[in-house]
Write a structure and sequence with these properties.
Chain A is mostly helical. Chain A contains 20 helices and no strands. In chain A, helix 3 packs parallel to helix 10 and helix 17 packs antiparallel against helix 19. The chains are: A mainly alpha, B mainly alpha. Chains A and B meet through helix 1, helix 3, helix 9 and helix 12 of A and helix 1 of B.
């Protein structure tokens, strides 16, 4: 029998936690610069297509996986994938899928969060710098370089943020995470709405032809003829990132549901809350504000939109200190409520697989993130904002592996678990009936779409020189060792993740692996 | 703001807002009943 596990105390707590899990830096930071880079309105069309054909189906798949694993006492992907694969495969073959799932989810929650936590730390620092007006009247590029160069300060803001995460996770799911998100999520929405109101009332503060309305127009002009493969790929990638798909963390949260709790409507509600935060709120802040003060050139600032372009705006805006602080606090809240899910994944792994108490586990995870995040803080290429170590990790773990895991999600939970079983699981305790025509979308369209995305991303990575010993984006080969450090780290973590998943499955299902027959079944 | 942009934005915002309202309110009601 599965041991008694913590459970969500209330429906509202669960939905806010899931929304917090999905709503992250991707909504307010990554979405605007991806939209700006890929043609604004020309990005939004493939974005909505991917949301419908990929986002909603895979969100359902991950909720079903999570609740199914939770029924057996698992909040991690290794054992969950193993259990679902057993429906079609012999246990020893199902073990392979368990190892793949466990390995990928462990790598993402470990390495993605190792640099994501640093960006959360930057947001904490910039909240303080905005409130005190520290960067006002200064060159915002140089200010960021100076800040990143001050490792002590970087680690201080990182430490405050991650210690708070550790406290929340250490308190447990219902008494920790749920209580924290019940406070943070409403604050996140309030902060975002304040900024949207500011954005809508900016007018044309610099030039008559620059206004926030022009920013809205750029984002929403449906330029169908300008949709390219590139923008379609970027949109599909954004859907994975923004909904926190392919990470193992939606499954982890869903594992704390009861076996008869709804997943169909809950999954749909999670996506709707995320899209409200991304399309309506996220789309109405950075792009319109940057457009009003910096024109079209300003929104092409890419990754620097949040930490370079917008600080330039706040220093020229009435009540800029206040709105700057609100913007960075918003980023901090958004990052925090997503990072907490990755933190919890690893703590659950220690708790369930190695029987380490939650509080001790939360301390171990803190130390792990400190060690894995150190190269981000020490990378010398921060002096030119190249950040090779972070970039390499983001290219592979933060983008590529999400799609790989998303594909395995469907292979395991729909194909190997069998489509009829998946459909039955989706409707167990469901508050809605999902229309039958959605079934082929989940069974065939979503995996084909994901596979196409993976093939084209691979092709893009080859032509972009990401597979080279020294990737093409590395302009200073003398620092290529930081790229290799990132690659070494990925290799090491993938191996550890595979071994951990193998041990976790073997520990509980050793007998059936030995006999190669299913014994434990609920 | 061009009419086509405004129409696309209003359409997308409308769908998301209605979808969110229906999903969350139904979930809350069902949760209370349970």
């Amino acid at each position: 029998m599965a041991e008694q596990r913590d459970k969500w105390a209330s429906k509202i707590g669960l939905i806010l936690a899931m929304a917090g899990n999905a709503i992250g830096l991707g909504n307010f930071w990554r979405f605007p610069y991806q939209a700006a880079k890929n043609g604004g309105g020309a990005f939004m069309i493939p974005y909505f297509v991917a949301l419908f054909l990929l986002g909603i189906p895979i969100m359902w798949v991950e909720w079903v996986e999570g609740r199914y694993g939770g029924k057996y006492g698992h909040g991690t992907l290794g054992p969950t994938f193993y259990l679902m694969s057993r429906e079609s495969l012999k246990p020893r073959t199902a073990l392979i899928f368990g190892i793949i799932g466990g390995m990928l989810a462990f790598s993402v929650t470990t390495l993605l969060n190792s640099y994501y936590l640093h960006i959360i730390g930057w947001s904490a620092a910039y909240t303080y710098f905005s409130a005190t007006g520290a960067y006002f009247g200064k060159d915002s590029v140089q200010f960021l370089i100076n800040y990143l160069g001050n490792t002590g300060q970087v680690l201080l803001f990182w430490g405050i943020s991650v210690a708070l995460l550790g406290v929340a996770v250490g308190q447990g799911v219902s008494k920790g995470i749920e209580r924290w998100v019940k406070v943070m999520m409403p604050l996140l929405y309030v902060a975002a709405i304040l900024l949207v109101i500011r954005s809508l009332t900016l007018g044309s503060p610099v030039k008559p032809e620059w206004s926030s309305m022009k920013g809205f127009e750029f984002l929403w002009e449906p330029r169908l003829s300008e949709v390219t493969w590139q923008s379609a790929l970027a949109a599909a990638g954004q859907i994975f990132f923004t909904l926190s798909l392919g990470m193992g963390i939606i499954q982890n949260y869903a594992s704390y549901l009861g076996p008869e709790d709804d997943v169909a409507l809950s999954g749909l509600a999670t996506v709707s809350l995320n899209e409200f935060a991304e399309v309506i709120l996220g789309g109405s802040i950075a792009i319109p504000i940057a457009f009003a003060y910096l024109g079209e050139k300003g929104i092409s600032a890419g990754v620097g939109l949040a930490y370079i372009a917008l600080p330039n705006v706040f220093m020229n805006m009435p009540a800029g200190q206040f709105f700057g602080a609100v913007w960075f606090l918003l980023l901090w809240f958004a990052g925090f409520t997503s990072a907490i899910a990755m933190y919890n994944y690893l703590t659950a792994l220690l708790e369930e697989d190695l029987k380490i108490s939650r509080k001790t586990g939360a301390i171990f995870v803190f130390i792990l993130y400190l060690i894995l995040g150190l190269p981000v803080a020490l990378d010398p290429t921060k002096a030119t904002l190249d950040l090779y170590y972070l970039t390499e990790l983001d290219n592979w773990v933060g983008s590529y592996l999400l799609v790989v895991l998303g594909l395995f999600d469907i292979i395991v939970a729909v194909w190997l678990f069998k489509p009829e079983n998946f459909w039955e699981e989706l409707h167990k305790g469901a508050y809605i009936k999902v229309p039958g025509w959605i079934k082929p979308l989940i069974t065939y369209v979503a995996p084909i779409y994901t596979l196409i995305l993976l093939i084209f991303t691979t092709k893009d990575y080859i032509t972009g020189g990401y597979f080279k010993a020294v990737p093409s984006y590395v302009a200073k080969p003398e620092y290529a060792s930081w790229v290799w450090l990132a690659r070494g780290m990925m290799f090491l973590i993938l191996i550890i993740g595979a071994i951990e998943a193998y041990i976790a499955i073997k520990k509980k299902y050793g007998e059936e692996l030995e006999k190669n027959e299913v014994i434990i079944k609920m | 703001m061009k009419g086509s942009a405004l129409a696309f934005m209003a359409f997308a915002w409308g769908i998301i807002l209605i979808w969110m309202y229906l999903a969350v309110s139904k979930l809350m009601k069902a949760g209370q009943k349970a």
